[in-house]
Amino acid sequence: MSRFGNIFYLCLVFGALWGAISTILITLLALFVSGQPFQPQVTAGAIAGLVSAAVLTGLQPAKRTPAMVAFAAFAFVLTLTLASGATPLGLPLGTYSFGQLIFTILIAVFAVQSVTLTAKHLGPGKERRYNVEVLCLRFLKGFGLVVFTIAVALPFFVMVMMSLKNQQLLLSNPLDFSINFAQGAEALFRSYIELFTQYHFGSYLLNSALVSVATVAITLFFAVPGAYAVARLKFPGQNFLSRSILLIYMVPMIVLVIPLYAIFSQLGMRNTLWGLMLVYPATTIPVALYMLQGYFRGIPAELEEAGLMDGLIRLNVIRKITLPLALPALASVALYVFMIAWNEFLFAFMFLDNVDLYTLSRGIAELNSSEVPRQHLMAGAVIATVPVLALFLWFERFLVAGLTAGSVKG
Amino acid sequence: MTDQRKPQPPKGLGPLAKREMRFAYLLLLPTFLIVLSVVLFPLVANVWISFKPVTLGDLRAPSILINERLMGDLDAVGDEADIRYRARNSSRKSAIADVVMTDTLPATLRVVAVDERCTIEGENLRCDLGDYEAGQREDILVRVAATADFLSDPPNVKDTKPVFDYVPENILTNNDFTLDNFRKVFNASDFWTVLWASMYYTIAGTVGALVMGLFAAQLMNMAFRGRAVLRGLFLSPYVAPVIAVALAWVLLLDPGPGGTLNALLIQLGVIEGPISFLGQRVAEISFLGLTFNFPVALTVVIIFEIWRYFPLAMLFILARMQSMSTDIYEAAEIDGATPIQQFRFISLPQLMGIMAVLFLLRFIWTFNKFDDIFLLTGGAAGTRTLTVNVYEQAFAISNLGAGAAVAVVVFVILLMFSVIFFKFSPEDDA
Q1: What is the rounded distance in angstroms from the CA atom of residue B239 to the CA atom of residue A393?
Q2: Contacts of B351 in chain A (CB under 8 A)
Q3: CATH code for A195-406?
Q4: Higher pLDDT among residues A251 and B6, named by residue
């Protein structure tokens, strides 16, 4: 058996790819953090990745000790610096020297670590198809993780950073996301403070909270009895209802918006929060009902029958037996409805004319003009995003379980 | 005596079952009422409006505008002049029925003659003006003579405002129907462009979100440190308010100074000048000697849709994958199946059910999507889908009727999808 086989050659290719990816990523990170016009040295990075992969994966898996990994990383730094003509980040080493050193080491660590993980337990020799596939899939998954993470995080990153930056600075160098902490917290969060003091964001926040909480309360109040009836009681049309209730959720909001606008205008209900508190539950009740009835079916009917035998009336059976058992489902439905109401844009945009009644979505739409600086717009976006995201991440397990158990949302 | 018939099972509902049925209907009643009034009734109302010539301005109820004036000079006792009421129907389209005007005349003026439709009781004037056509205007004259008291302290006749009582015609409920709205919609030069954009958006957005969701679910199914954090991150596009993320994308893709992505691509040397991602309708791409017109803005809007909704697909596919039994994979492992073979022949067949359901649901929801495109491009640069067109017609051009007509088209297409959905929906697979 020859010393080097297909795995080794694949590792070389993946090493070069990881080298290039790592160079691009970390150089851009350095660019964002420092504001210096760094240029990724892609070719040099690929060569450095190739060299370090050759050093590391040429060894048997058992011999790839931490010391060897460190040595490979050192080889990476050396090759990158040499191949790029002493400009590992695209600028002479004289400028921003210490930062360049740190970021160059970061590039090496990320690339070598990726190569190590990709080639883990797979030796340099020739191996069968199973291990070749494992190797390729590892690279693909690692690459996918990197791409997905960046694609998802970039807009949020830009949102937060722009909200903290001054408009002039941003226009002169849009890639400079360095934060100047020396200016003090008040200057740093100026756009947030101004939104609350001059742009009524305090009242928007309150209105959003009020409408969302009211929507949750009304939805649960209506959907719980309905779901119980569909799940437990026998009546003509039960089957039809349990299948077709979700169809209501397929009705496009945009089809409802014209008649509701016309009718609410004539009834004088358009420019009120009451109007929203009527429309939002109507759209969330069907989906809440669908999710809850799925959960209620999962609760053993014997428990309720025992309650009935012991002389409880139906309403008390629901109150004392079913609801406590369904608490997780109730929580997840509540969260989910809150999320829909909080994020709703179309009806808030169409219905509300009065600044005092604006919800956050409506208020941010108002900021979207050329007269309002961008950092205010993005600060508004952050203010709207943080509560719902925090709530969601806090209760994530809950919600995910409830969502996937009962139903889905668009 | 014996009953010849065999015992029969009871027919119909027994009293207990009936009570249960009534109770069930009672529990469902609130839901039924709110859905009826806010979803089903508006659906019907939308069809109704689509046949009516209504614009946004017509929603304001018509009213009577009045101008009251003393015509002529009253300088000496016995001088005569006219008080002229000039009344007008404010609306140019709808009539007003049963107009009644009442006013109080100054006591110091002696009434000489009044319009034949008016009556005087003391100082009170009451005129039955009948029905006003759209835009109708007329003058009502009251001839008065000055008295000595009047001249010593002349009051202004305008001090007492005339009061009107009338029944305005409701533009939404009158009998005025037209087919113009639909004619306009189908004859519009861009109707087929809009329909095509809608279908392209729906299909590409749905398939893209599903494929990306499948891929992301594979990634999240691995065990690694920080997986919980990454899963939370991956879900955030779906959870964050649409307006926040859409505007972040708009600034990210901005072609002007300050646009992050363009600056980034220029710094990397990928492009030479900024690209207007959301403002450019088509780009010509030459490939193998053929030239394609690549719809730039529409594709970017689709990418946004995929970005925002792949988490949902990921969530469901992941849940399905984690409920799969591991035995079968162990057996495959022993039989020497490679990872790709395991995915192709074991995982994928088990995922087909949930994928089909997700496809149908997402297909309909993507077709219904309005806010995403509206916030990103406002329907410009070839991104106007049917739903954006509803808004465009009804609120940008202020023609409610035409907007409602487009909405009817949207709903009919949707009904066709729903029929297909119901036909192919697997039983309880989600």
Answers
A1: 9
A2: none
A3: 1.10.3720.10
A4: A251
Domains in chain B, CATH or no CATH each: 63-168 (2.60.40.1170), 181-424 (1.10.3720.10)
SS3 assignment for chain A: CCCCCHHHHHHHHHHHHHHHHHHHHHHHHHHHHHCCCCCCCHHHHHHHHHHHHHHHHCCCHHHCCHHHHHHHHHHHHHHHHHHCCCCCCCCCCCCCHHHHHHHHHHHHHHHHHHHHHHCCCCCCCCCCHHHHHHHHHHHHHHHHHHHHHHHHHHHHHHHHHHHHCCHHHHHHCCCCCCCCHHHHHHHHCHHHHHHHHHCCHHHHHHHHHHHHHHHHHHHHHHHHHHHHHHHHCCCCCHHHHHHHHHHHCCCCHHHHHHHHHHHHHHHCCCCCHHHHHHHHHHHHHHHHHHHHHHHHHHCCHHHHHHHHHCCCCHHHHHHHHHHHHCHHHHHHHHHHHHHHHHHCCHHHHHHCCCHHHCCHHHHHHHHCCCCCCHHHHHHHHHHHHHHHHHHHHHCHHHHHHHHHHHCCCC
Yes or no, beta carbons of B244 and A385 under 8 Å apart: yes
Nearest to A318 by CA among A291, A299, A340, A335: A299
B289: left (phi over 0), alpha (psi -120 to 50) or beta: left
Best mutation target among A258, A260, A313 (most B Cβ atoms within 10 Å) is A258
Does residue B4 carry a pLDDT above 70? no
ipTM of the complex: 0.91
Residues of A in contact with B316 (CB under 8 A): 404, 408
Q: What is the pTM of this model?
A: 0.86
B340 interaction partners in chain A (CB closer than 8 Å): 133, 137
Kindly report, residue by residue over B37-66, the tens digit of the pLDDT: 888 999 998 988 888 888 877 777 777 788
Backbone angles phi, psi at A37, to 5 degrees: -75, 70
Q: Please state the domain extents for chain A.
A: 6-182, 195-406
**Chain B interface test: which of A41, A230, A254, A292 (most B C-beta within 10 Å):** A254
Closest CA to B238 of A200, A213, A152: A152
Would the CB atoms of A223 and B31 count as touching at under 8 Å? yes
